[in-house]
Structure formats: C-alpha cells, structure tokens
Specification:
Number of domains: 1
Helix content: 25-40%
CATH architecture: Roll
Largest sheet: 3 strands, antiparallel
CATH class: Alpha Beta
Structural class: alpha+beta
CATH superfamily: Gamma-glutamyl cyclotransferase-like
Distance between the termini: 28 Å
Shape: globular
C-alpha cells in the first residue's frame, strides 16, 4: 500500500473515490516548506495546483493522506499527468495530534514541472479544491486563501457539468 498526499482537487473524497474507488482516506496532514499555488499547466489549458517548494518552514500546505494499492498507482499517475507536467515527489508530512502514534508520515505527492503563472484555474476545478479543504475542516484562513484564487469559466460546458455532477448525488 502507498501513502498519497492529496493537496489539490483530490482532497475532495468524492473526486478521489471517483478516480480510485479503492483509496482509503487515512487522515489529514501538513506539508511544510511548500505553498499552494495554482500555476501548473493543465492538459485542458487551465491552471492546476502545485505544491511549490519555498524552503520557508513557515509555509505549509494542508492535504489528505490516502492509502492506495500499489497496482492502482498507474491509474492515479494517468489522472495526474505524470511525466506531462507533474513528477512524483516524496516528503515527510506532519500528522494531526492524536491521529496516530507518530507525528510524521512519509508520503508521495505530485509536484509541477510545467508551470505558467499567468494561467487561472477553471471554476469547477477550484470547486473541487475548496470542497476538499472545507470537507476536511482545514483552517478558515487556508480555505479563504483558496476562495480568493481568481478562476475562469470553462468554455467546455459539458466538461464543467460532468466535473460538478459528482456533488449532486448522495
């Protein structure tokens, strides 16, 4: 089993389980020395999230640790675009107090290699990220930071409807 740190759209449990139904949400965690930036060039031409390395210990990204079977890694890699704008990185993340008998866990996550600071995310993508942050009860100021990210309408209305349809059920 692998421990995947989701800090973008996969923080939303519905989105993650739509992609990898066998994923198990373990806990939330904090990645220090990084900041959340929407500047990764997506295959659809919009911005996606990046765990941008800053070297500043005061910078942090909140995320969700999922346990996924090793044999499903190629599926997740395909969704994330491994080798097409993302690479796999590894780090120790800080666990919430009382969630485990340890304070850190080694995880893997996706880090952008193809960035464009002029890009903006589609509104539906930002909805996934914000829903994940709210669902996991991340600090209010962190959720507000996500809310303030400028986003644009996706010209492909069908894609937008499909992306957001996962929140209409249940």
């Amino acid at each position: 089993m692998l421990h995947y740190f989701a800090y973008g759209s996969n923080m939303s449990t519905r989105r993650m389980l739509q992609r990898i139904p066998q994923a198990v949400r373990l806990t939330t965690a904090v990645l220090k020395g990084h900041t959340l930036v929407f500047h990764k060039r997506g295959r659809d031409g919009s911005a996606k999230c990046d765990a941008f390395y800053t070297k500043r210990s005061s910078d942090r990204i909140y995320g969700v640790i999922y346990q996924i079977p090793q044999e499903h890694l190629p599926i997740l890699n395909a969704f994330e675009g491994l080798g097409k704008g993302y690479e796999i990185a590894r780090a120790l993340v800080e666990l919430p107090h009382g969630s485990s008998d340890r304070s850190e866990m080694e995880v893997f996550f996706y880090q952008a290699t193809d960035i464009d600071p002029k890009l903006k995310p589609f509104k539906w993508y930002k909805v996934h990220v914000l829903r994940g942050a709210l669902e996991n009860r991340f600090p209010a100021e962190y959720c507000e930071k996500i809310k303030r990210v400028p986003a644009i309408l996706d010209p492909n209305r069908e894609r937008m409807a499909k992306e957001l349809s996962i929140y209409r059920h249940r």
